[in-house]
């Protein structure tokens, strides 16, 4: 019973995020360029996919274990959101005279590295395991379940690769370029 509640709460969380993004117009004003429009469409498809996959697990009471494993991805979200809060609160850089080349604060550095580490473990490894499981079970799964799982994992994989690249570029590669230019 508790597993079903976890699955339903994640479905509700995805629905809430979608309504919040649309209600606050966080995405719509940025949808002026093709890349932003592509990301918007990808996000909308992802929300629909997440809601339908978790809905299938909750209603049919099948694949609940698979749905719960997918919740491991949310462990990384803790560090992703903490990083965002540090950015929004202006605590990315250490206070000091380095106006031209500010150094990241200790808190931001720790959260950034924890974010990247948990990203690799709880996003890439979990999604990789899920893809292997889905491929291994493909003969015994109904066709619509296989299609839903494949579509959901494909969307999540694309979005995770793009997000990881953006995080790596902003937190690691950006710092390397700045420090190599100053020497």
UniProtKB/TrEMBL annotation:
Localization annotation: Membrane
| GO cellular component terms, semicolon-separated | plasma membrane
What name has this protein been given in UniProt?
A: TLC domain-containing protein 2-like
- The residues that cross the membrane are 27-50, 62-86, 106-132, 144-168
The record places domain TLC at: 51-169
Q: Name one Pfam family in it.
A: TRAM_LAG1_CLN8
Keywords on this record?
A: Membrane, Transmembrane, Transmembrane helix
The positions making up the signal sequence are none
Topology class, membrane: Multi-pass membrane protein
**GO BP annotations listed:** membrane assembly; phospholipid homeostasis; plasma membrane organization; regulation of membrane lipid distribution
Record flagged with keyword Lyase = no
Q: Does the keyword Membrane apply?
A: yes
Q: Which domain of life is it from?
A: Eukaryota
